[in-house]
Design brief:
There is one protein chain. It contains eleven helices and 20 strands. The protein is α/β, with parallel strands linked by helices. The chain folds into two domains: 177 residues, no CATH class; 287 residues, Purple Acid Phosphatase, chain A, domain 2, CATH 3.60.21. It has an eight-stranded mixed beta sheet with strand order 10-9-8-7-17-18-19-20. Strand 3 and strand 4 form a beta hairpin. The protein is elongated and about 155 Å long. It starts with a helix and ends with a strand. The C terminus is likely disordered.
Length: 546
């Protein structure tokens, strides 16, 4: 028999043998990281992914909820906060442009957009114009209230967006709570950075965009401008009503009266974005039953996209509308005009409307910053060249052209002897003259004969139908709104014209003068603009009041 000692020794030997086998097998297995290290790595990756999803959710929430509306004085404003590397604040005033303020450096951009003007509140502000300082303080308080509400709403939307997206992605309450804490920390950091970098003095040094580039030169004393603008609004209706009386008054005068076959053309120019001009144009077009409206450019001021809405009034005229681009009109402006159902944009082209053939070309310049110095030789040459191109187009036309349209009168000289009448604008002042050809007319290359020309070309430069727009407020006496009605007989000759002027801002003076156009036979004829009627004076009707 085996003694107990021997049995215990055999068991110990077998244990040692098994351990040796296990150790030998363990040396042949590949190395694996410890379970604790792998768990930590996975936790880090999970945390990074959680943060990324939380930030994405926060940005989505900010985009969806980071805007609100607030009444600021007479305006209803749209306020919004968006992520930005540069911060700053922008105040948009469609269609005039915007103000850019370097207000802060934080990663959030504040945008204030003045959407609409409430008429009742505007009248209340104007009625309380003696207390403009209080009105200004109230507007500042309203803006502060709107910004605070916007900040709280944006923070809440960002927090909610982050927690919803994390909850849908990870489906764990603990992860959702952690995401909320991360977003709160991010939003607090953004708010702190904005507050620390805030620059109250930035409002004194704004950067102007669009039409507001002219604001420093135009605004001057705010109280004075406010008074003038209110006077303008109060008298606007009287201006339009006075113009509507012109037709009935002038038709009874014992002077030239066009027959029913006469073609009536309304010539306007240089509207310069004046909202009052369209009412006057529509009233004159309706009362005089004009057949065509021709516009010799500068319908806008800066040619910007927001200004395109201004030309929408063209479709309300209900008669053909011919237009050539001015130096303040861009390609965007011309495209907006071309979209109107009754409008035709002439750019070195010819069209026949109501029995009259018109040729026109746009101004080759685009200088909305008013850099149109007449001494600039390069610009002058470009304008003259545009007139030469239009002259070549007219000479090559199989039908005679009755009226040529240009913006700058400088482009009219090459048309002397080519076309009987040239209409222009640009100078904001009415003038009429006769043009003598500088050089003999050159026949076109195809051998066609130029149109017979017995009279020197008549150049009619229109004043500003918009009273020069905002620039009209710069002078002590605002420029009048100027427009003309041209009467063409059955032979397509200009026989008479009515010169209409509506008093400038705040004035209700309306005047109309009818002129008979006499034939200008070759050399002996004097260079005159029009011949008075047989009554020795041009008939005029004037109604005035203040």
């Amino acid at each position: 028999m085996t003694s107990p000692f021997h049995r215990r020794a055999a068991v110990a030997a077998r244990r040692i043998q098994r351990r040796a086998i296990v150790m030998a097998a363990g040396r042949r297995r590949p190395f694996r990281p410890a379970p604790t290290r792998w768990r930590r790595t996975r936790q880090v990756l999970h945390g990074v992914l959680l943060g990324v999803v939380a930030i994405i959710g926060m940005l989505i929430g900010v985009q969806l909820g980071g805007h609100t509306t607030q009444d600021i004085g007479p305006f209803q404003a749209q306020l919004s906060l968006t992520p930005s590397l540069h911060g700053d604040t922008s105040v948009e005033i469609p269609p005039l442009g915007s103000l850019e303020l370097d207000s802060h450096d934080g990663p959030a951009h504040l945008q204030i957009r003045l959407e609409s003007l409430d008429e009742a509140r505007t009248r209340a502000v104007v009625a309380d114009s003696g207390n403009l300082e209080q009105v200004s303080h109230d507007a500042v308080d309203q803006l502060n209230l709107g910004v605070r509400r916007l900040a709280l709403q944006t923070a809440g939307s960002g927090l909610l967006g982050a927690m919803i997206l994390v909850g849908l992605t990870f489906r764990a309450r603990r992860d959702t709570a952690i995401a909320g804490l991360v977003v709160v920390a991010v939003l607090a950091s953004v708010g702190g950075a904005t507050a620390l970098s805030f620059k109250p003095a930035a409002i004194q040094e704004p950067t102007y965009r669009g039409l507001l580039v002219n604001a420093p030169a135009i605004i001057g004393d705010a109280r004075r401008i406010s008074d003038r603008y209110e006077e303008y609004r109060a008298q606007l209706q009287k201006i339009v009503l006075n113009v509507s009386k012109l037709y009935g008054t002038i038709s009874a005068l014992p002077v030239y009266e066009p027959n029913t076959s006469a073609t009536k053309v309304l010539h306007i120019s240089d509207m310069h974005l004046n909202p009052a001009a369209w009412g006057v144009v529509r009233t004159v077009a309706d009362q005089f039953s004009v057949d065509v409206v021709v516009d010799t450019g500068d319908i806008n001021d800066w040619g910007s996209e927001p200004e395109s809405s201004y030309v929408g009034e063209i479709s309300k005229l209900r008669v053909p509308y011919l237009y050539v681009r001015g130096n303040h009109d861009s390609a965007v402006t011309a495209a907006a005009v071309a979209k109107q159902p009754n409008a035709t944009v002439l750019d070195n082209s010819i069209v026949t409307v109501e029995g009259l053939t018109f040729a026109g070309i746009g101004d080759p310049r685009f200088t909305p910053d008013k850099s149109t110095d007449a001494t600039d030789a390069e610009q002058h040459a470009a304008v003259v060249a545009s007139g030469e191109r239009l002259a070549e187009k007219i000479l090559a036309s199989p039908m005679p052209v009755d009226v040529a349209l240009v913006h700058d009168p400088v482009a009219a000289q090459p048309l002397a002897g080519i076309c009987p009448l040239v209409l222009a604008g640009h100078r904001h002042a009415r003038s009429i003259s006769r043009l003598d050809p500088d050089t003999p007319v050159v026949l076109p290359s195809d051998g066609a004969s130029p149109p017979a020309q017995q009279e020197r070309t008549l150049l009619m430069v229109e004043g500003s139908t918009g009273g020069a727009g905002l620039r009209g407020l710069e002078s002590a006496k605002p420029l009048p709104l100027a427009l003309s009605i041209l009467y063409f007989d059955e032979d397509r000759h200009l026989s008479a014209y009515d010169d209409i002027q509506v008093g400038g801002t705040g004035l209700t003076e309306v005047s109309l003068q009818r002129h008979i156009v006499a034939a200008d036979k070759a050399a002996p004829a004097p260079s005159v603009s029009a011949v008075p009627t047989p009554s020795s004076v041009s008939p005029s009707v004037t109604t005035s009041g203040r």
